[in-house]
Design brief:
It is a single chain. This protein is an all-beta fold. It is 0% helix and 44% strand. The protein contains no helices and nine strands.
Amino acid sequence: METIKNLFQNADWKKEKHIPVIYAPSKAKKGDNIRIEVSVGKEIPHPNTTEHHIASIEIYFLPQKGKFPYVLAKIDFSAHGSSTEGPNTSGVYTLPSATINFKTESSGTIYAVSYCNIHGLWKNSFDIVVE
């Protein structure tokens, strides 16, 4: 039986255009505003066409001693060049990048998941120490 963890693909984001790249501080103070930026296609741009695009990014936080992650954000990217005149004709394209802020009292791991309409789910993670 397939488990959900087997559905996620992973690779080095410098060599793979589908990996969500996470930018966040590696250390923060309790209660501080923590800014996270996640983007797809940092080193190798991902196509953003009607036929091939990043449809969404989800961001999670799993506290160090937590059993379940918290959903921090779900971002849908809806403009991929399509219009009533056909694929790739509108000239309007949403770029797969998002910035969010959150607060925590605990160290933990930030997880980001991107969804490509052709190549499925891709993941990345980033550890943060909260003092």
